[in-house]
Amino acid sequence: MPRIKRSVHARKKRRKVLDQAKGYWGLKHSSYTYAKEQVEHSLVYAYRDRKAKKRTFRRLWIMRINAAVRQHDLSYNQFIAGMKKDEIERDRKVLADLAVSDPAAFGKIAERAKAALQA
Question: What is the C-alpha separation between 62 and 71, in angstroms, rounded?
Answer without folding.
Answer: 15
